[in-house]
UniProtKB/TrEMBL annotation:
The keyword Ribonucleoprotein does not apply. Residues 1-84, 97-116 are annotated as: Disordered. This is DNA glycosylase superfamily protein. InterPro entries: Alkylbase_DNA_Glycosylase/TA (IPR051912), DNA_glycosylase (IPR011257), HhH-GPD_domain (IPR003265). It comes from Striga hermonthica (Purple witchweed). GO terms for cellular component: nucleus; protein-DNA complex. SMART domains: ENDO3c. Keywords: DNA damage, DNA repair.
């Protein structure tokens, strides 16, 4: 056997080649399985599970992509023009149908608000109001009933315009009845008569002119402030007449020199409001003390409680309390026999048309007053 040359090697027969099948790896099997069996596409309504992505601790973790849940609106992305028009038409129809209801609700709300506004009661000068007040007080307060039967019915006859009446109340402050009446008559004459007592006329008067008729500098400033509030439109006679009690009280106490007592007297005797109770008035407090046999003068809060049953005619009840005080002051104990007030007609010294001349103190401004005498009550 010698060494074979390259030519001899080429002449040797070559073995038959057999192609071996490819080695099947797991990945290949998975790919072939996916190719042979196509999985159904998941429905949009189903919540697909987020695949678990193994994290390599040596690498920065990658946040898995969020898969949003498809809404039913995306199932049918294509909406025909007819369907869109129909939807818009139905929305417009719904809005149109709700509009009358909303308007009705607004009107109902407005009407309820208007009903909630405070109402102004009839003045005591209205026909039948005094009779209604007497019937109510007699039935509501048995202790007051004998006094009502004994005394004549009350009268509320003040007829001055609001501005004139308020100016008059300022002029009478801290003065006796006679001195106050003298200065008031001079003031009316200085204005040119009762009909000329108005804001424009008052503002033309100088402080020196007012001083010459006996009006102090402080009272002059009060009257000027009242006239200026009328001039600027903050107040007016028409506005004052139409205001409810609470609003009127707030507005008038803004005027310098006018406190709660002055406003209450004004509302009772100038506007004839039926349900005013001047809780700080000394005459009313003394009358309630005598009527109910109290050991001490009632405090304002106690007076409110005792006179609550007089509503809505507390003005008339207060008028009767002044009459008790008048009878006591005029005749001492002689005005009362057995605890019963004698008729005022029998008390001659007091029948001068200026009853209830006690000196009172204005609780807000510290201003002395004389009860209802300046209103001829």
């Amino acid at each position: 056997m010698g060494e074979q040359t390259p030519a001899q090697i080429d002449d040797l027969p070559k073995p038959e080649s057999h192609s071996l099948p490819p080695i099947e790896t797991p990945k290949a099997r998975q790919d072939s399985s996916d190719a042979g069996h196509q999985l159904p596409h998941p429905s949009p309504a189903a919540d697909p599970e987020i695949p678990h992505v193994p994290q390599n601790p040596s690498k920065i973790p990658i946040r898995p992509q969020k898969i949003r849940k498809l809404s039913t609106a995306t199932e049918k992305p294509s909406i025909s023009l007819d369907e869109s028009s129909a939807s818009a038409s139905s929305s417009l129809a719904l809005c149109a149908s709700s509009t009358p209801s909303s308007a009705k609700n607004r009107r109902r709300s407005a009407s309820q608000s208007s009903r909630a506004l405070p109402l102004i009661s009839k003045p005591l000068t209205a026909e039948g109001e005094i009779e209604s007040a007497i019937r109510h007080l007699r039935a509501a307060d048995p202790v007051l009933a004998p006094l009502i039967d004994t005394l004549p019915p009350p009268e509320f006859t003040e007829r001055l315009p609001p501005f004139h009446a308020l100016a008059k109340s300022i002029l009478y402050q801290q003065l006796a009845l006679k001195a106050g009446t003298t200065i008031y008559n001079r003031f009316v004459a200085l204005c040119g008569g009762s009909d000329s007592v108005c804001p424009d006329t008052v503002l033309t008067l100088t402080s020196q002119q007012l001083k010459q008729i006996g009006v102090s500098g402080r009272k002059a400033s009060y009257i000027y402030d009242l006239a200026n509030k009328y001039k600027s439109g903050i107040l007016s006679d028409n506005m004052v007449v139409k205001m409810d009690d609470k609003s009127l009280f707030t507005m008038l106490t803004m005027v310098k020199g006018i406190g709660s007592w002055s406003v209450q007297m004004f509302m009772m005797f100038s506007l004839q409001r039926p349900d005013i109770l001047p809780v700080s008035d000394l005459g009313v407090r003394k009358g309630v003390q005598m009527l109910y046999g109290l050991d001490e003068l009632p405090k304002p809060s106690q007076l409110e409680q005792l006179c609550e049953k007089w509503r809505p005619y507390r003005s008339v009840g207060a008028w009767y309390m002044w009459r008790i005080t008048d009878a006591k002051a005029a005749a001492g104990s002689g005005g009362l026999e057995g605890g019963v007030v004698q008729p005022l007609q029998q008390i001659e010294p007091r029948q001068d048309g200026h009853q209830h001349q006690l000196q009172f103190v204005e609780p807000v401004n510290g201003i002395g007053n004389m009860g209802a005498c300046i209103w001829n009550q």
